[in-house]
Design goal:
mainly alpha, 2 strands, two-stranded antiparallel sheet, single chain, 66% helix, 21 helices
Length: 463
């Protein structure tokens, strides 16, 4: 016998390689011991199978146990995540588990306690792709599972603080996307708390990374939109309360000497002092002062406290002054987005998509046109509008990929987006009504075109 042939036959490498198995029909608990294996190939195969099941078999009547969540998180703490070929699949797996589970503060607390220390303290000890996977996993867990308002806002603050300290662009991109996604669930009335991040977002809009520029532009559009609505509502409510107070006044009680006693020179001097102090307030004073025009200024140069407490009474701005402030701020933000658009260095399809998005942001800042998208589900159109829905839809597409249509059957997602997809007989009736309305509209359009053609023919004949 040939010695070489014998050695090749008996070589242990022929049996040492783990073969990827198709285990997509197994229950979730089947993968628990596989996630604790020492061989990374077995762990990777288990994660891939879990991702497939959670993505394309989301209608399974089976819950994911906390043991699975703990096993997935422990892959980060044990260092196994760094040995995986694709650590981002691990972060995606945790996100899919949270998407299927929905509101579950226990899961969120465990994931946050495990991953937050890695994100904040372990940056120098783990690879970039591990850190990005941990950031993504925590953002998805907070978005889909967190029910505690304070914990949710704390997670936003965690990502927000890192936006000022992190220097690596790939990490910045992941942090900005995570922070922006969580911001979409914040009450628009509380968005004034985050307007002070705008100077940092303007810096990001000039980054050499196209993804960072796009995410920063989206964040600017959403924050400015919400802040303007909040200030307008406050202004309208303040004007409404003043009108009510005016109705209560009796003409005889009006103090004619009020205007003579009021010192307008003193008010102007206070305002000049405030602006002078802002102009010499350090590096961040100038851009912050520009952004403060988005909120109503109080007396003594103070501002309205977005936490709901008044640091002073509102000064008496006219509606015209307030609108002029918005125009100035809009022009500044339009200039920022136009500069971002000029920095577009993508090629092909990505360049077209990014330019289209930036032009949509410009249209929103100039004319107030909100983005709109219509998705056909089971033959029925569902309409979504606003930057919040846009960002949430993009986040869902990134998480589930090509299984977007299958995921709409998830009641948790329907609740998240505020829609209800009919089933059974209700679905048939809805589809019938839609077809009927479309046919009626076509008939109306046809009759109109016939009348126009007939009138045109009669006019030509008369001439």
């Amino acid at each position: 016998m040939n010695i070489r042939e014998k050695k090749k036959t008996n070589h242990r490498s022929t049996v040492a390689v783990h073969k990827a198995l198709n285990e997509k029909d197994k229950e979730f608990e089947y993968f628990l011991p596989l996630l604790k294996e020492k061989k990374t190939s077995i762990v990777s195969n288990a994660i891939n199978n879990l991702n497939y099941i959670l993505t394309y078999q989301s209608d399974r009547d089976e819950d994911v146990s906390k043991d699975i969540v703990e096993a997935l998180c422990q892959l980060f703490t044990s260092g196994v995540s760094g040995k995986l070929d694709k650590p981002d699949e691990l972060g995606r797996c945790i996100g899919l588990v949270c998407l299927k589970t929905g509101d579950n503060n226990e899961y969120h607390r465990y994931i946050k306690s495990t991953l937050s220390s890695i994100i904040t303290d372990g940056e120098a000890h783990i690879k970039d792709n591990e850190l990005m996977a941990a950031i993504y996993a925590l953002s998805q867990a907070c978005f889909y599972c967190c029910t505690d308002r304070d914990s949710y806002r704390h997670t936003i603050s965690l990502f927000q603080d890192l936006l000022y300290t992190q220097k690596r662009k790939n990490i910045q991109d992941k942090l900005l996307s995570a922070w922006l996604l969580l911001l979409t669930r914040v009450n628009p009335q509380e968005m004034t708390d985050y307007k002070m991040v705008l100077p940092r977002l303007i810096e990001f809009s000039k980054s050499s990374s196209q993804n960072i520029r796009l995410s920063a532009s989206l964040a600017i559009a959403m924050i400015v939109d919400d802040v303007k609505e909040k200030v307008l509502e406050d202004f309208e409510s303040e004007m409404g309360s003043e009108d009510l107070n005016d109705e209560d006044y009796d003409g005889e009680d009006y103090d004619e000497d009020y205007d003579e006693d009021y010192n307008y020179d003193e008010e102007e001097e206070i305002e000049r002092d405030y602006r002078r102090s802002s102009d010499h307030g350090g590096k961040s004073a100038a851009p912050v002062d520009q952004l403060n025009n988005l909120s109503l200024n109080g007396e003594d140069g103070g501002q309205y406290n977005s936490d709901g407490e008044e640091g002073g009474e509102f000064s008496e701005y006219s509606e015209e002054d307030t609108v002029n402030q918005f125009i100035v701020d809009d022009d500044h933000m339009v200039q920022v987005i136009e500069e971002t658009l000029s920095l577009n260095n993508e090629k092909g399809k990505k360049k077209i998509q990014s330019k289209s998005l930036l032009r949509q942001i410009l249209a929103n800042l100039k004319d107030g046109d909100s983005p709109k998208e219509t998705i056909i589900i089971n033959g029925l159109p569902f309409h979504f509008s606003g930057w919040r829905k846009y960002i949430q839809l993009e986040g869902l597409r990134k998480l589930v990929g090509s299984a977007m249509m299958a995921q709409w059957q998830n009641p948790l997602i329907q609740k998240q987006f505020g829609i209800e997809i009919p089933e059974g007989r209700r679905l048939v009736e809805a589809q019938y009504q839609l077809k009927r309305s479309i046919s009626q509209k076509k008939k109306v359009d046809y009759d109109r075109s016939v009348r126009l053609a007939s009138s045109l023919f009669e006019n030509n004949a008369a001439n």
